[in-house]
From TrEMBL, chains A, B:
Record InterPro entries: GntR_C, TF_FadR/GntR_C, Tscrpt_reg_HTH_GntR, WH-like_DNA-bd_sf, WH_DNA-bd_sf
The organism's place on the tree of life at top rank: Bacteria
GO molecular function: DNA binding; DNA-binding transcription factor activity
Family annotation (SUPFAM superfamilies): GntR ligand-binding domain-like, Winged helix' DNA-binding domain
Location of the HTH gntR-type domain: 2-69
SMART domains listed in its UniProt record: FCD, HTH_GNTR
Naturally occurring in which organism (per UniProt): Knoellia locipacati
Protein's UniProt keywords contain Ribosomal protein: no
Taxonomic lineage from the root: Bacteria, Bacillati, Actinomycetota, Actinomycetes, Micrococcales
Keyword list, A-Z: DNA-binding, Transcription, Transcription regulation
Name of the protein in its database record: HTH gntR-type domain-containing protein
Pfam families: FCD (PF07729), GntR (PF00392)
Amino acid sequence: MTSKADRVRQAVLADILSGAVAPGTPLDEVALAQQHDVSRTPVREALRALQGDGLLEVGPRRQLLVVDVSPERRREVTTLRVALEGAATAAACERRDEDDLDRLELLLLKQGRAAGAGDAETFLRLDEEFHLALAGAARMPTLSRMLEQLGAFVRLGRLGEATTTPHMHGLVGEHEELVSLLRSRRAARLRSALATHIEQTTPRG
Amino acid sequence: MTSKADRVRQAVLADILSGAVAPGTPLDEVALAQQHDVSRTPVREALRALQGDGLLEVGPRRQLLVVDVSPERRREVTTLRVALEGAATAAACERRDEDDLDRLELLLLKQGRAAGAGDAETFLRLDEEFHLALAGAARMPTLSRMLEQLGAFVRLGRLGEATTTPHMHGLVGEHEELVSLLRSRRAARLRSALATHIEQTTPRG
DNA sequence: AGTGACTCAAATGTATACATAAGTCCCTCG
DNA sequence: CGAGGGACTTATGTATACATTTGAGTCACT
Protein backbone atom coordinates (compact mmCIF):
# COMPACT_ATOMS: atom_id res chain seq x y z
CA MET A 1 0.00 0.00 0.00
CA THR A 2 2.69 2.45 -0.91
CA SER A 3 0.96 5.63 -1.95
CA LYS A 4 2.66 8.23 -4.06
CA ALA A 5 2.72 10.55 -1.07
CA ASP A 6 4.66 7.92 0.87
CA ARG A 7 7.12 7.39 -1.91
CA VAL A 8 7.75 11.10 -2.27
CA ARG A 9 8.13 11.45 1.46
CA GLN A 10 10.72 8.69 1.63
CA ALA A 11 12.56 10.07 -1.35
CA VAL A 12 12.74 13.58 0.09
CA LEU A 13 13.69 12.18 3.48
CA ALA A 14 16.51 10.22 1.90
CA ASP A 15 17.70 13.34 0.10
CA ILE A 16 17.71 15.27 3.35
CA LEU A 17 19.48 12.61 5.39
CA SER A 18 22.06 11.96 2.70
CA GLY A 19 22.84 15.63 2.47
CA ALA A 20 21.76 15.78 -1.17
CA VAL A 21 19.67 18.79 -0.20
CA ALA A 22 21.59 20.92 2.25
CA PRO A 23 20.11 22.43 5.40
CA GLY A 24 18.50 25.76 4.65
CA THR A 25 17.46 24.70 1.17
CA PRO A 26 13.92 25.76 0.34
CA LEU A 27 11.72 22.98 -1.03
CA ASP A 28 9.42 24.00 -3.84
CA GLU A 29 6.22 22.03 -4.27
CA VAL A 30 5.96 22.32 -8.02
CA ALA A 31 9.61 21.49 -8.55
CA LEU A 32 9.33 18.37 -6.43
CA ALA A 33 6.10 17.44 -8.18
CA GLN A 34 7.77 17.61 -11.60
CA GLN A 35 10.86 15.89 -10.28
CA HIS A 36 8.84 12.91 -9.05
CA ASP A 37 6.30 13.06 -11.85
CA VAL A 38 3.29 13.47 -9.59
CA SER A 39 0.91 16.32 -8.82
CA ARG A 40 1.32 18.80 -6.02
CA THR A 41 -1.12 16.95 -3.77
CA PRO A 42 1.08 14.00 -2.73
CA VAL A 43 4.06 16.34 -2.55
CA ARG A 44 2.19 18.55 -0.13
CA GLU A 45 1.31 15.60 2.06
CA ALA A 46 4.92 14.46 2.07
CA LEU A 47 6.18 17.90 3.03
CA ARG A 48 3.62 18.28 5.79
CA ALA A 49 4.61 14.92 7.21
CA LEU A 50 8.28 15.87 7.21
CA GLN A 51 7.36 19.17 8.78
CA GLY A 52 5.52 17.26 11.47
CA ASP A 53 8.70 15.30 12.14
CA GLY A 54 10.53 18.57 12.60
CA LEU A 55 12.73 18.12 9.55
CA LEU A 56 11.31 21.11 7.75
CA GLU A 57 10.60 24.52 9.17
CA VAL A 58 8.79 27.51 7.75
CA GLY A 59 11.02 30.33 6.68
CA PRO A 60 10.37 33.72 5.13
CA ARG A 61 7.81 33.68 2.34
CA ARG A 62 6.31 30.61 3.99
CA GLN A 63 8.92 28.49 2.36
CA LEU A 64 9.66 25.10 3.82
CA LEU A 65 13.35 24.95 4.62
CA VAL A 66 15.41 21.94 5.51
CA VAL A 67 16.30 22.38 9.16
CA ASP A 68 19.82 23.16 10.21
CA VAL A 69 20.90 21.15 13.24
CA SER A 70 22.75 23.61 15.40
CA PRO A 71 25.32 22.53 18.00
CA GLU A 72 22.81 23.39 20.74
CA ARG A 73 20.28 21.17 19.08
CA ARG A 74 22.80 18.37 18.83
CA ARG A 75 23.41 18.61 22.54
CA GLU A 76 19.69 18.58 23.15
CA VAL A 77 19.21 15.48 21.02
CA THR A 78 22.00 13.76 22.89
CA THR A 79 20.40 14.64 26.21
CA LEU A 80 17.07 13.33 24.98
CA ARG A 81 18.58 10.10 23.75
CA VAL A 82 20.24 9.55 27.12
CA ALA A 83 16.97 10.21 28.92
CA LEU A 84 14.79 8.11 26.63
CA GLU A 85 17.11 5.21 25.95
CA GLY A 86 17.98 5.17 29.62
CA ALA A 87 14.33 4.89 30.58
CA ALA A 88 13.81 2.27 27.91
CA THR A 89 16.63 0.04 29.02
CA ALA A 90 15.54 0.35 32.62
CA ALA A 91 12.12 -0.91 31.60
CA ALA A 92 13.66 -3.56 29.39
CA CYS A 93 15.55 -4.96 32.37
CA GLU A 94 12.18 -5.77 33.92
CA ARG A 95 11.07 -7.73 30.92
CA ARG A 96 14.30 -9.22 29.58
CA ASP A 97 12.73 -11.07 26.70
CA GLU A 98 14.91 -13.77 25.15
CA ASP A 99 13.84 -12.76 21.66
CA ASP A 100 15.16 -9.27 22.22
CA LEU A 101 18.48 -10.56 23.43
CA ASP A 102 18.72 -12.85 20.42
CA ARG A 103 18.04 -9.96 18.08
CA LEU A 104 20.66 -7.85 19.79
CA GLU A 105 23.23 -10.63 19.63
CA LEU A 106 22.60 -10.98 15.92
CA LEU A 107 23.15 -7.28 15.44
CA LEU A 108 26.38 -7.50 17.41
CA LEU A 109 27.60 -10.18 15.02
CA LYS A 110 26.77 -8.08 12.00
CA GLN A 111 28.43 -5.06 13.54
CA GLY A 112 31.57 -7.04 14.17
CA ARG A 113 31.59 -8.08 10.56
CA ALA A 114 31.06 -4.53 9.31
CA ALA A 115 33.79 -3.28 11.63
CA GLY A 116 36.16 -5.95 10.36
CA ALA A 117 35.40 -4.99 6.78
CA GLY A 118 35.85 -1.32 7.60
CA ASP A 119 32.40 -0.64 6.15
CA ALA A 120 31.56 2.59 7.98
CA GLU A 121 28.27 3.16 6.22
CA THR A 122 26.87 -0.25 7.05
CA PHE A 123 28.20 0.09 10.56
CA LEU A 124 26.39 3.35 11.13
CA ARG A 125 23.16 1.83 9.90
CA LEU A 126 23.61 -1.17 12.19
CA ASP A 127 24.48 1.11 15.07
CA GLU A 128 21.22 2.96 14.66
CA GLU A 129 19.36 -0.32 14.35
CA PHE A 130 21.03 -1.62 17.48
CA HIS A 131 20.02 1.35 19.58
CA LEU A 132 16.45 1.13 18.32
CA ALA A 133 16.34 -2.58 19.07
CA LEU A 134 17.79 -2.01 22.52
CA ALA A 135 15.14 0.56 23.32
CA GLY A 136 12.51 -1.56 21.58
CA ALA A 137 13.03 -4.25 24.20
CA ALA A 138 11.07 -2.00 26.54
CA ARG A 139 7.95 -2.49 24.41
CA MET A 140 7.12 1.18 24.65
CA PRO A 141 5.86 2.17 21.21
CA THR A 142 5.59 5.89 21.86
CA LEU A 143 9.13 5.98 23.15
CA SER A 144 10.40 4.02 20.15
CA ARG A 145 8.65 6.43 17.86
CA MET A 146 10.32 9.39 19.54
CA LEU A 147 13.72 7.77 19.19
CA GLU A 148 13.12 7.13 15.51
CA GLN A 149 12.39 10.79 15.03
CA LEU A 150 15.48 11.75 16.97
CA GLY A 151 17.49 9.42 14.77
CA ALA A 152 16.89 11.73 11.84
CA PHE A 153 18.41 14.62 13.76
CA VAL A 154 21.37 12.50 14.75
CA ARG A 155 22.03 11.67 11.14
CA LEU A 156 21.56 15.27 10.08
CA GLY A 157 24.00 16.39 12.74
CA ARG A 158 26.59 13.95 11.49
CA LEU A 159 26.42 15.22 7.92
CA GLY A 160 29.22 17.71 8.23
CA GLU A 161 31.58 15.25 9.82
CA ALA A 162 34.15 12.91 8.44
CA THR A 163 32.51 9.81 7.05
CA THR A 164 35.09 7.62 8.69
CA THR A 165 34.19 5.99 11.95
CA PRO A 166 37.51 5.33 13.63
CA HIS A 167 36.98 2.95 16.50
CA MET A 168 34.27 0.69 15.23
CA HIS A 169 35.68 -2.29 17.08
CA GLY A 170 35.67 -0.34 20.31
CA LEU A 171 32.05 0.61 19.78
CA VAL A 172 31.09 -3.00 19.20
CA GLY A 173 32.74 -3.80 22.50
CA GLU A 174 30.65 -1.16 24.23
CA HIS A 175 27.54 -2.55 22.62
CA GLU A 176 28.44 -6.02 23.83
CA GLU A 177 28.83 -4.63 27.31
CA LEU A 178 25.38 -3.05 27.10
CA VAL A 179 23.76 -6.30 26.04
CA SER A 180 25.58 -8.11 28.82
CA LEU A 181 24.29 -5.64 31.38
CA LEU A 182 20.77 -6.01 30.02
CA ARG A 183 21.02 -9.79 30.26
CA SER A 184 22.12 -9.60 33.87
CA ARG A 185 19.49 -6.93 34.57
CA ARG A 186 21.93 -4.50 36.07
CA ALA A 187 19.73 -1.53 35.32
CA ALA A 188 21.67 1.21 37.08
CA ARG A 189 24.97 0.15 35.61
CA LEU A 190 23.36 -0.23 32.19
CA ARG A 191 21.93 3.26 32.33
CA SER A 192 25.22 4.88 33.14
CA ALA A 193 27.16 2.85 30.59
CA LEU A 194 24.58 3.74 27.97
CA ALA A 195 24.77 7.43 28.84
CA THR A 196 28.55 7.42 28.51
CA HIS A 197 28.34 5.53 25.24
CA ILE A 198 25.80 7.90 23.69
CA GLU A 199 27.63 11.01 24.80
CA GLN A 200 30.92 9.76 23.42
CA THR A 201 29.50 8.80 20.05
CA THR A 202 27.89 12.19 19.44
CA PRO A 203 30.62 14.84 19.22
CA ARG A 204 30.07 18.19 20.94
CA GLY A 205 27.59 16.27 23.08
CA MET B 1 -2.57 33.58 9.83
CA THR B 2 -4.91 30.75 10.66
CA SER B 3 -5.58 28.58 7.65
CA LYS B 4 -8.73 26.52 7.36
CA ALA B 5 -6.67 23.39 7.81
CA ASP B 6 -5.42 24.75 11.13
CA ARG B 7 -8.87 25.66 12.31
CA VAL B 8 -10.23 22.24 11.44
CA ARG B 9 -7.29 20.59 13.13
CA GLN B 10 -7.81 22.53 16.34
CA ALA B 11 -11.54 21.88 16.26
CA VAL B 12 -11.12 18.14 15.79
CA LEU B 13 -8.38 18.10 18.42
CA ALA B 14 -10.68 19.86 20.85
CA ASP B 15 -13.43 17.35 20.12
CA ILE B 16 -11.05 14.48 20.76
CA LEU B 17 -9.61 15.88 23.97
CA SER B 18 -13.01 16.85 25.32
CA GLY B 19 -14.34 13.39 24.66
CA ALA B 20 -16.97 14.71 22.26
CA VAL B 21 -15.74 12.04 19.86
CA ALA B 22 -14.99 8.87 21.76
CA PRO B 23 -11.89 6.73 21.23
CA GLY B 24 -12.47 4.26 18.44
CA THR B 25 -14.72 6.62 16.53
CA PRO B 26 -13.94 6.64 12.81
CA LEU B 27 -13.50 10.11 11.33
CA ASP B 28 -15.02 10.60 7.91
CA GLU B 29 -13.45 13.22 5.67
CA VAL B 30 -16.60 14.28 3.88
CA ALA B 31 -18.62 14.44 7.08
CA LEU B 32 -16.01 16.66 8.72
CA ALA B 33 -15.79 18.77 5.59
CA GLN B 34 -19.54 19.42 5.60
CA GLN B 35 -19.52 19.92 9.36
CA HIS B 36 -16.90 22.65 9.12
CA ASP B 37 -18.12 23.98 5.78
CA VAL B 38 -14.84 23.47 3.97
CA SER B 39 -13.64 21.12 1.28
CA ARG B 40 -11.94 17.79 1.88
CA THR B 41 -8.49 19.24 1.31
CA PRO B 42 -8.02 21.13 4.59
CA VAL B 43 -9.78 18.30 6.42
CA ARG B 44 -7.28 15.84 5.02
CA GLU B 45 -4.39 17.99 6.13
CA ALA B 46 -5.85 18.29 9.59
CA LEU B 47 -6.35 14.53 9.90
CA ARG B 48 -2.85 13.79 8.66
CA ALA B 49 -1.43 16.21 11.21
CA LEU B 50 -3.36 14.57 14.02
CA GLN B 51 -2.27 11.19 12.74
CA GLY B 52 1.29 12.43 12.90
CA ASP B 53 0.75 13.36 16.52
CA GLY B 54 -0.40 9.82 17.19
CA LEU B 55 -3.97 10.80 18.01
CA LEU B 56 -5.44 8.92 15.07
CA GLU B 57 -4.59 5.46 13.89
CA VAL B 58 -5.56 3.56 10.80
CA GLY B 59 -8.14 0.87 11.37
CA PRO B 60 -9.85 -1.59 9.07
CA ARG B 61 -11.04 -0.10 5.80
CA ARG B 62 -8.24 2.46 6.15
CA GLN B 63 -10.43 4.45 8.44
CA LEU B 64 -8.83 6.92 10.77
CA LEU B 65 -9.88 6.04 14.31
CA VAL B 66 -9.47 8.11 17.43
CA VAL B 67 -6.87 6.30 19.49
CA ASP B 68 -7.79 4.51 22.66
CA VAL B 69 -5.32 5.13 25.46
CA SER B 70 -4.84 1.78 27.10
CA PRO B 71 -3.62 1.40 30.70
CA GLU B 72 -0.27 0.20 29.36
CA ARG B 73 -0.02 3.29 27.27
CA ARG B 74 -0.87 5.46 30.23
CA ARG B 75 1.96 3.89 32.16
CA GLU B 76 4.27 4.47 29.24
CA VAL B 77 3.29 8.10 29.00
CA THR B 78 3.91 8.53 32.71
CA THR B 79 7.34 6.95 32.37
CA LEU B 80 8.14 9.22 29.47
CA ARG B 81 7.03 12.30 31.32
CA VAL B 82 9.23 11.38 34.27
CA ALA B 83 12.20 10.84 31.99
CA LEU B 84 11.70 13.96 29.89
CA GLU B 85 10.60 16.40 32.57
CA GLY B 86 13.34 15.05 34.79
CA ALA B 87 15.95 15.72 32.15
CA ALA B 88 14.45 19.13 31.50
CA THR B 89 14.49 20.26 35.10
CA ALA B 90 18.05 19.01 35.50
CA ALA B 91 19.06 21.18 32.58
CA ALA B 92 16.94 24.05 33.88
CA CYS B 93 18.89 23.96 37.16
CA GLU B 94 22.00 24.86 35.17
CA ARG B 95 20.35 27.91 33.65
CA ARG B 96 17.96 29.08 36.36
CA ASP B 97 16.63 32.05 34.48
CA GLU B 98 14.80 34.60 36.60
CA ASP B 99 12.13 35.04 33.95
CA ASP B 100 11.26 31.37 34.15
CA LEU B 101 10.97 31.51 37.92
CA ASP B 102 8.73 34.56 37.67
CA ARG B 103 6.49 32.81 35.19
CA LEU B 104 6.27 29.77 37.43
CA GLU B 105 5.46 31.87 40.48
CA LEU B 106 2.67 33.56 38.57
CA LEU B 107 1.25 30.19 37.64
CA LEU B 108 1.43 29.09 41.26
CA LEU B 109 -0.66 32.11 42.22
CA LYS B 110 -3.26 31.34 39.60
CA GLN B 111 -3.35 27.71 40.67
CA GLY B 112 -3.91 28.69 44.25
CA ARG B 113 -6.82 30.85 43.18
CA ALA B 114 -8.34 28.09 41.04
CA ALA B 115 -7.92 25.63 43.91
CA GLY B 116 -9.61 28.04 46.30
CA ALA B 117 -12.51 28.47 43.91
CA GLY B 118 -12.75 24.74 43.41
CA ASP B 119 -12.47 25.27 39.67
CA ALA B 120 -11.13 21.87 38.64
CA GLU B 121 -11.19 22.56 34.91
CA THR B 122 -9.13 25.72 35.16
CA PHE B 123 -6.83 24.00 37.61
CA LEU B 124 -6.12 21.16 35.21
CA ARG B 125 -5.33 23.62 32.45
CA LEU B 126 -2.99 25.53 34.74
CA ASP B 127 -1.40 22.30 35.87
CA GLU B 128 -0.57 21.39 32.31
CA GLU B 129 0.72 24.88 31.67
CA PHE B 130 2.85 24.71 34.79
CA HIS B 131 4.54 21.49 33.79
CA LEU B 132 5.22 22.82 30.30
CA ALA B 133 6.65 26.02 31.73
CA LEU B 134 8.80 24.07 34.16
CA ALA B 135 10.23 21.96 31.37
CA GLY B 136 10.41 25.02 29.11
CA ALA B 137 12.96 26.51 31.48
CA ALA B 138 15.44 24.08 30.00
CA ARG B 139 15.20 25.86 26.63
CA MET B 140 15.07 22.56 24.82
CA PRO B 141 12.52 23.03 22.06
CA THR B 142 12.45 19.44 20.86
CA LEU B 143 11.85 18.22 24.38
CA SER B 144 9.07 20.76 24.91
CA ARG B 145 7.47 19.63 21.69
CA MET B 146 7.50 16.02 22.82
CA LEU B 147 5.92 16.95 26.12
CA GLU B 148 3.19 18.88 24.36
CA GLN B 149 2.38 15.80 22.34
CA LEU B 150 2.37 13.66 25.43
CA GLY B 151 -0.01 16.13 27.04
CA ALA B 152 -2.69 15.09 24.59
CA PHE B 153 -2.36 11.47 25.72
CA VAL B 154 -2.49 12.49 29.33
CA ARG B 155 -5.72 14.33 28.75
CA LEU B 156 -7.13 11.46 26.73
CA GLY B 157 -6.26 9.05 29.49
CA ARG B 158 -8.07 11.19 32.04
CA LEU B 159 -11.29 11.25 30.05
CA GLY B 160 -12.89 8.29 31.75
CA GLU B 161 -12.15 9.56 35.21
CA ALA B 162 -14.08 11.67 37.62
CA THR B 163 -13.88 15.32 36.69
CA THR B 164 -13.26 16.28 40.28
CA THR B 165 -9.72 16.89 41.37
CA PRO B 166 -9.73 16.28 45.10
CA HIS B 167 -6.53 17.61 46.56
CA MET B 168 -5.86 20.66 44.46
CA HIS B 169 -4.33 22.53 47.39
CA GLY B 170 -1.98 19.66 48.02
CA LEU B 171 -0.89 19.69 44.40
CA VAL B 172 -0.20 23.40 44.53
CA GLY B 173 1.99 22.71 47.54
CA GLU B 174 3.93 20.13 45.57
CA HIS B 175 4.32 22.58 42.72
CA GLU B 176 5.64 25.19 45.10
CA GLU B 177 8.14 22.68 46.38
CA LEU B 178 9.30 21.97 42.82
CA VAL B 179 9.82 25.66 42.08
CA SER B 180 11.68 26.04 45.34
CA LEU B 181 13.99 23.17 44.45
CA LEU B 182 14.59 24.67 41.02
CA ARG B 183 15.43 28.02 42.57
CA SER B 184 17.97 26.43 44.89
CA ARG B 185 19.28 24.26 42.05
CA ARG B 186 18.90 21.05 43.95
CA ALA B 187 18.71 18.99 40.77
CA ALA B 188 18.74 15.49 42.24
CA ARG B 189 16.12 16.30 44.81
CA LEU B 190 14.04 18.09 42.19
CA ARG B 191 14.14 15.13 39.87
CA SER B 192 12.92 12.70 42.47
CA ALA B 193 10.22 15.03 43.78
CA LEU B 194 9.04 15.59 40.24
CA ALA B 195 8.94 11.85 39.53
CA THR B 196 6.85 11.22 42.62
CA HIS B 197 4.55 14.08 41.76
CA ILE B 198 3.97 12.92 38.19
CA GLU B 199 3.41 9.32 39.19
CA GLN B 200 0.91 10.26 41.84
CA THR B 201 -1.10 12.54 39.61
CA THR B 202 -1.52 9.94 36.88
CA PRO B 203 -3.54 7.01 38.26
CA ARG B 204 -2.52 3.46 37.34
CA GLY B 205 0.89 5.04 36.65
C1' DA C 1 16.20 61.53 -3.30
C1' DG C 2 13.47 58.93 -0.19
C1' DT C 3 9.20 56.98 1.09
C1' DG C 4 4.82 55.12 0.41
C1' DA C 5 1.33 52.91 -2.12
C1' DC C 6 -0.14 50.30 -6.00
C1' DT C 7 0.40 46.61 -9.10
C1' DC C 8 2.07 42.36 -10.55
C1' DA C 9 3.99 37.87 -10.05
C1' DA C 10 4.72 33.60 -7.86
C1' DA C 11 4.09 30.99 -4.25
C1' DT C 12 0.88 28.34 -1.16
C1' DG C 13 -4.09 27.44 0.30
C1' DT C 14 -8.49 25.63 -1.25
C1' DA C 15 -12.05 23.53 -4.00
C1' DT C 16 -13.64 20.10 -7.03
C1' DA C 17 -13.54 16.57 -10.35
C1' DC C 18 -11.62 12.18 -11.40
C1' DA C 19 -9.16 7.59 -10.43
C1' DT C 20 -8.67 3.78 -7.77
C1' DA C 21 -9.04 0.38 -4.34
C1' DA C 22 -11.44 -2.18 -0.85
C1' DG C 23 -15.67 -4.07 1.13
C1' DT C 24 -20.18 -5.77 0.70
C1' DC C 25 -23.97 -7.84 -1.19
C1' DC C 26 -26.07 -10.59 -4.39
C1' DC C 27 -26.15 -13.84 -7.94
C1' DT C 28 -24.72 -17.92 -9.88
C1' DC C 29 -22.65 -22.25 -10.00
C1' DG C 30 -21.21 -26.44 -7.93
C1' DC D 1 -27.52 -25.09 0.50
C1' DG D 2 -22.91 -23.31 0.65
C1' DA D 3 -19.08 -21.14 -1.53
C1' DG D 4 -16.96 -18.30 -4.80
C1' DG D 5 -16.87 -14.56 -7.89
C1' DG D 6 -18.26 -10.24 -9.80
C1' DA D 7 -20.41 -5.73 -9.87
C1' DC D 8 -21.67 -1.89 -7.18
C1' DT D 9 -20.89 1.24 -3.44
C1' DT D 10 -18.17 4.12 -0.77
C1' DA D 11 -14.36 5.38 0.91
C1' DT D 12 -9.56 7.45 0.14
C1' DG D 13 -5.80 8.86 -3.25
C1' DT D 14 -4.67 11.99 -6.97
C1' DA D 15 -4.92 15.61 -10.37
C1' DT D 16 -6.03 20.11 -11.70
C1' DA D 17 -8.22 24.47 -11.72
C1' DC D 18 -9.10 28.45 -8.92
C1' DA D 19 -8.45 31.77 -4.87
C1' DT D 20 -5.66 34.24 -1.92
C1' DT D 21 -1.83 36.00 0.20
C1' DT D 22 2.69 37.81 0.25
C1' DG D 23 6.83 39.80 -1.47
C1' DA D 24 8.99 42.66 -4.82
C1' DG D 25 9.39 46.20 -7.98
C1' DT D 26 8.14 50.53 -9.78
C1' DC D 27 6.09 54.84 -10.09
C1' DA D 28 4.47 58.92 -8.27
C1' DC D 29 4.40 62.31 -4.85
C1' DT D 30 6.45 64.87 -1.19
